[in-house]
Fold this protein.
Amino acid sequence: MSLTNGWEMVVGLEVHTELKTATKMFCGCANSFGSLPNTNVCPVCLGLPGSLPVLNARAVELAMAIGVALHSTIAPSTFHRKNYFYPDMPKDFQISQYDLPINVGGFLDLPDGSRISIERAHLEEDTGKSTHLGGSGRIHGADRSLVDYNRSGVPLVEIVSGPDIRSSTQARDYASELRGILMATGASDGRMEEGSMRIDANVSVRKVGQPLGTRCEIKNLNSLRSLQRAIDYEAHRQTVILEEGGRVRQETRHWDENLATTSTMRVKEEADDYRYFREPDLVDLIPDEAWQARIREGLPPMPAERRSMLGARLHEPSDSLLGAVSVVVDLDLDAYVSSARDAGVPAELALPRAANELATDLGGLSNLSFEAFTATLLMERSGELSPTQAKSVLAELLASGGEPRAIAAKKGYEQLETGAVASVVAQLIEEHPDEWSRYRDGDEKLAQFFIGQVMKRTKGQANGKDVIAELHAKR
Amino acid sequence: MKSASDIARDVQSGTSSAASELDVALAQIRARNGELNIFLYVDEEGAQRTAAALDERIQRGEQIGPLAGVPVALKDNLCQTGIPTTCSSKILEGWRPPYNATVIDRLLVAGAVPVGKTNLDEFAMGSSTENSAFGPTLNPLDTSRVPGGSSGGSAAAVAADMTPLALGSDTGGSIRQPAALCGLVGVKPTYGLVSRYGLIAFASSLDQIGPLTKNVRDAALLLEVIAGHDPLDSTSLPEPAPSLSSHVNDGVAGKRVGLVRELIDGADADVMASVERAADALREAGATIVELSVPEFRLGLSAYYLIAPAEASSNLARFDGVRYGLRVNGDDVTSMMEATRTAGFGEEVKRRIMLGTYALSAGYFDAYYGQALKVRTLTINAFARAYHQADFLLGATTPSVAFAFGAKTSDPMAMYLSDVFTIPSNLAGEPAISVPFGTGDAGLPVGVQLLGPGRSEALLFAGARVLEIADGRS
Amino acid sequence: MSEPLRREDVAHVAKLARLILSEDELNRFTQQLSQVLEHAHDMNSLDLANLVATAHPFGLVNVVRDDVTRPSLDHDVVIAMAPDAQDGRFAVPRILGEAP
């Protein structure tokens, strides 16, 4: 949605991603989702008196990888304490990077060609998780809360975009592209539904060309759909206020997925005094050139590059083929497409098969080798299998593995000999004399009729090209 | 009382046993702890088990470490598995740590026998041990006076012949000042030499654990055991423990000693006289005395009383009634936290949390905390300048000998001022030793202080040993 | 920096620090903290503009550990510390607002 009447929205996103490390940011407890409550905890991540943090090298490397992928400068950085009392935060301060983050600046190019600037991408630790008892199970109206510290100290990178986003669609595209990058770097599993990627949106509106308006921050959007809807709602809400001559109040707002509205969570006030100061229990982080180079060299190609690699050999890049390219990259199916292509399967065939057939059963990919995928498509290309048959073979391969030729044989997909096609065609000409004479008189549409009939009679085992050749011969 | 090195030698050789040395310690604790209020917790059974296990190993012919069978007292801000650890605060009521501080693991490896936890100013905030939620500790040398603080309990345990060794912690003088007031050797090591893992933090960038002992040799021995890199402390120096006891008798011949005016000015006449005689003794041992002025040291106090409370206000936030220790109920979580902290912390701790919170809060950060960090830089630079002219520095540890109970409790600023000579070393992260030298008013001991550049402990021990001999304490 | 410390400043700080001060304490702390801050004013006489702030006495950098798991605490030991617990979690009275 875009705004009307000369209004435009100005949006910046803060994306928090949990890093896919084996251990937490400052201790050796497992970083894993779904363990029994308070089982992955130790003196450090419980904030027990006397415990001290020691930084996880892998977390630093993943943060640097994110920075490289976002074209940031990797800079000398420090850690600060952000002080506030909250029961899910065991030390009652959060260790976070503040004025000197590890990644400074950068940008992210979206598939539509627009470029969103990145202000910073810094390291910080996650908090524990509260469950609320009584009332509706939400924080408001609850009688009592229970805290699990398994998530406490899990490493996070917060990626802050510039206020460059101008529509909710663009915001969604940015988040989606960033998610792809985070997954490609190995930094994140991208599971938004498990909270491993959470988004805060800063939204304001203004008349085009005017200075920035007062912004509101919408917290904890955890799906792309919520992100898009919340931004639309919020921009509309602010526009209405301003059109009626009102003032937007700077505040933090909560998105309610069920009501599809945002509501005031807390007003910015003086009490937001986090008393930041350097974390004296940690030392400076100054990755040297060699360490940075190791990260840079170890980085796989990012989604944009992969898309252009896959799309490069398309003769006519239609929307549907480009769509298939995006799906293939998003689902990390590039290797299937490129190995098929290297064996001579046209990208025009490999892309839709990967984007449509493989995408329906990602769990089955472990059963499907690149060779089997390629072999199936080569059979389809040579006419040994019809498209329908090829899809069915792929489904079978994904479900239970095996060898394409054997599966085709088992399913009885061996195509009819040309001779057999000729006899079926002859039979049909006899049965449908009117259609045949109209075809002979030049009504090409009837070719399709005969092909359909042949397929019906042969249960799809005839090759369409053979049928056409036969029709031509008999004409 | 027997020195730690003698005990270790006798226990290892079989002349004595860990169990019998422990009995001596426990007997003295039983005899005097009721009166002096030194130990908050005595782990008789645990200590006896440790001692018995050591004796068994020795009987099997095993070589134990350098502290075989030596009883050690621990300041009650060091975490020991399963042993109540209170920081002399009500807020840690009932808490037993599920882990050992690194120094305790190292003591155990060296064959030492931890006997219990000693009293301190609550969260190590104070200079007299009067700020303990469990009552003050009495100075064994004169029970009408304070033992100093905050490691007053540890100092008193050694002074009262309960244990030959004790560990304290020093943030602004909390080892050296009680050592001076109780007639002991007290060492504040180079920042990062001893792991802070398991030391309940007061001011993280200033805290160091160190020894309190009767003599220089034992101090070197104990520091060797607890020093050296620890991967659990990010601020730990990367190198292994230095050899220290082998340098105790190196002497000071040819060394330049800086007698620093700012580390004497304002001291009582008896203290000043001791420092001057100490200078003479070092000169007689072959050192050159250089008189120096380091005006920046005076500013240390102001910087310290902003930096330490600022860090403390954040370090002590975790005592909120949610996960461990005291909880006072409230209608909601904020009221619970407020009620718990209000009931759990004593007045001095609250005062410093308030000061530190203010110094860090928006609008004041640059004026106070930011400025204080720069003064810290200034102090470091000033030390560096002094070390162009001298190998180590000499001054008083405290302005006076042990003072009477209540003398400074009503005036926090007066109490803070008594840390003026010890603070610069903490700000710079550099080592300093207090060693008894002569007596002052009322026949009470006076401590003189030797200060050196980072990692110069061996040199300071050699200097302290020269003074120990000159003072007739061979 | 030369502004005097006001009683309401001290009250605000107490709120930030989650402490409840009696009237008596509020007055006393205002006076005592003023005294300490007054003393700190001697730092003002210095020209410190060109000095870098020291937050740490030694220049250690890049102290990191390998990403290798270490044993966590036994769950029973963890929960035994809790002033109040339920279902293996730490229990607290109702929370009035979301985290900032």
Remarks:
- Chain B has a mean pLDDT of 96.
- The two ends of chain B are 14 Å apart (CA to CA).
- The CA atoms of residues 253 and 286 of chain B lie 4 Å apart.
